[in-house]
Amino acid sequence: MTIKFTWFGTASYILDLDGTRLLFDPFFYRNSLATPKLKTKKEQITNIEATFISHGHFDHVTDAGWFAENLNVPVYCSEVAKENMINWAEGKILEDETYLISNDGKDNIKPCEYFDKIQVSDNVEVELIKSEHIKFDFNTIASRLFSWKVWKQIGRISKYGKGFPMGNVFGFCTRYNGRSIVAFGSLWHEYEDILKKYENCDVFIAPLAGNSKKNIAKKGGKMVDILKPKIVIPVHWDNFFPPISRTEDLSPFFKYMEKNNPNIEIIVPEIDNEITWEFE
Ligand SMILES: [Zn+2]
Q: What is the 266 CA–ligand 1 centroid distance (Å)?
């Protein structure tokens, strides 16, 4: 069987399981300063079976309602994330950003609970893992507050903050033919007992962002220690919305892995490029 992974920056990607295609945290609303550049447009995405949203923040839900409306696919998320998508589409967060979302589109957005299992097809199931959001550390907050560019845009940026409350935070365990892919939209390492349930997964999609590089290494490293995946794919480390994002330095994480988990393969994805695995 063939599993494919295509990253679009942030925690946004398509997982393709022998043709069953799942879209996670779609975010094509990168601004013009974002790096690396994303070539794929949301209009080019087709043949999606379902969409999954980890939490309600703007870099995870901004484009999700668009897929519910235009591709007529179910979008599984929290109650709060659903409200955020509809508020965004209806121009209640930024007046100059609207698109049509019909009642059918709204009905496609399905609020879920922790540990719900979504049967996407005969042999693809996605379990919603109970998780939390990373707590921004002093270094991360300070580096943003001291940025003049942030202050200049504070009006618009604070609207994103207020307009996209977080809601419940989900991780995902996608199961397919005995394989499992565990993914999170935010780096939360403290629910050890929960993480342990997904031990020995095949792939761990790790959101390495939101803290100092030292803390990213520590928290990400601890998740890897518990999950014991065969492969780690770091995501969310790109500079997706300057000036409120930055490119994360992953070298302390790589060092941690070399020392503690030398047998686990790390594949750093490139935006727009497909990664393919053949499994027995
Ligand atoms: Zn977030």
A: 23
pLDDT of residue 173: 98
CA–CA dist 43, 45 (Å, integer)? 6
| Tokens 């803390």 sit on residue | 215
Query: Which tokens go with 78?
Result: 């929290």
Instruction: Provide the domain limits for residue 67.
Output: 2-278
Question: Can you tell me the distance from the alpha carbon of 181 to that of 1, in angstroms, rounded to the nearest whole number?
Answer: 14
Query: What digits encode the pLDDT tens for the residues 51-72?
Result: 999 999 999 999 999 999 999 9
How many domains, the chain?
1
Q: What's the Rg (C-alpha) of the chain?
A: 18
What distance in angstroms lies between residue 84's CA and the mean position of ligand 1's atoms? 13
**Residues with Cβ < 8 Å from 108, sequence gap 6 or more?**
68, 69, 72, 73, 74, 75
Q: Which CATH number covers residue 192?
A: 3.60.15.10
